[in-house]
């Protein structure tokens, strides 16, 4: 099994592409879904955000007020970095655990939907291939305003907080241009899927882990065997081995 990173800009259509991969039977681990999970009331990240940003970014019922938090972080780089330091490690833990479960199920590859893959940089080295979803800038702005009911100013701030799309595309192995029809996007996804399923990289990964696990099992066996042998030798040398021991009250 190997990992394929899926990224792009906000409102460029990553969710659409993710769903297309799911329809092809490929597991998709969504960082946004993990981000929502880790800030559920009582979780570690939830407590850290409350301690760092205060009650003003929470609703009365204890749930995170994303709109209030967004207002703070998109206008203050330092505050955004504070939030990232709290949430990113927890998100990666959740994603890694999901990846382990997918690997155990025998999937050839997994798509990791990571909006900030390049900005954070932590997961880039673990990706065998990277896919970037792009679209025209005006269309991206329009989609963002409509999907999230944001003003043009807030939408531009959100887009500006991310890396330039051309820069992302230059670092990817595959680029999906999502300005056209769904059929066009679907065809691009299908071509990438065919390309990835032809890869033999997952067999190399499985061989590596098979050898590593086999070596570990062998080492444990040798240590156990040596320990038992030493115990038997010590027992044979014991002066009490052939001594009849009687305890009070036995006879």
Descriptors for this entry?
5 strands; alpha/beta; flat; five-stranded parallel beta sheet; 59% helix; 251 residues
Verbal overview:
- The structure is a single chain.
- This protein has about 250 residues and is of the alpha/beta class.
- Helices cover about 60% and strands about 10% of the residues.
- It is built from 11 helices and 5 strands, in the order βαβααααβαβαααβαα.
- The chain has a 5-stranded parallel sheet, with helices on both faces.
- α2 (about 30-40) packs across α5 and α3 runs antiparallel to α5 (about 75-105).
- The chain is flat.
- The termini are far apart.
Radius of gyration: 27 Å
Q: What distance lies between the first and last C-alpha atoms, to the nearest angstrom?
A: 67 Å
Q: Could you report the average pLDDT, rounded to the nearest whole number?
A: 86
Order of helices and strands: EHEHHHHEHEHHHEHH
Low-confidence spans: 206-210, 238-251
Number of alpha- plus pi-helical segments: 11
How does the major sheet shape up? 5 strands, parallel
What is the number of beta strands?
Answer: 5
Strand order of the largest sheet: 2-3-1-4-5
Shape: flat
How is the secondary structure organized here?
Elements: E1 2-8, H1 14-23, E2 28-30, H2 31-38, H3 44-53, H4 66-73, H5 77-104, E3 109-113, H6 117-120, E4 129-134, H7 137-148, H8 152-160, H9 165-170, E5 174-177, H10 182-197, H11 201-237
Parallel strand pairs: 1-3, 1-4, 2-3, 4-5
């Amino acid at each position: 099994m190997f990992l394929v990173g899926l990224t792009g800009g906000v409102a460029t259509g990553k969710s659409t592409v993710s769903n297309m991969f799911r329809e092809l039977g490929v597991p998709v681990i969504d960082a946004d879904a993990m981000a929502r999970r880790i800030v559920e009331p009582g979780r570690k990240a939830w407590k850290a955000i409350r301690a760092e940003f205060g009650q003003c970014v929470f609703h009365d019922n204890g749930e995170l007020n994303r709109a209030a938090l967004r207002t703070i972080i998109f206008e203050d780089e330092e505050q955004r970095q504070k939030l990232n330091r709290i949430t990113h490690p927890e998100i990666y833990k959740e994603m890694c655990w999901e990846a382990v479960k997918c690997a155990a199920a025998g999937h050839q590859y997994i798509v990791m939907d990571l909006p900030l893959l390049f900005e954070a940089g932590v997961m880039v080295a673990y990706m065998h291939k990277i896919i970037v979803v792009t679209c025209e800038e005006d269309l991206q702005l329009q989609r963002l305003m409509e999907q999230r009911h944001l003003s043009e100013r807030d939408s531009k701030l959100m887009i500006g907080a991310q890396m330039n799309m051309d820069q992302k595309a230059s670092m990817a192995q595959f680029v999906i241009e999502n300005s056209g029809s769904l059929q066009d996007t679907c065809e691009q996804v299908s071509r990438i899927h065919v390309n990835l399923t032809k890869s033999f990289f997952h067999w190399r990964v499985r061989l590596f882990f098979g050898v590593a696990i086999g070596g570990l099992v062998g080492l444990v066996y040798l240590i156990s065997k040596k320990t038992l042998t030493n115990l038997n030798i010590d027992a044979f040398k014991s002066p009490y081995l052939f001594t009849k021991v009687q305890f009070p009250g036995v006879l």
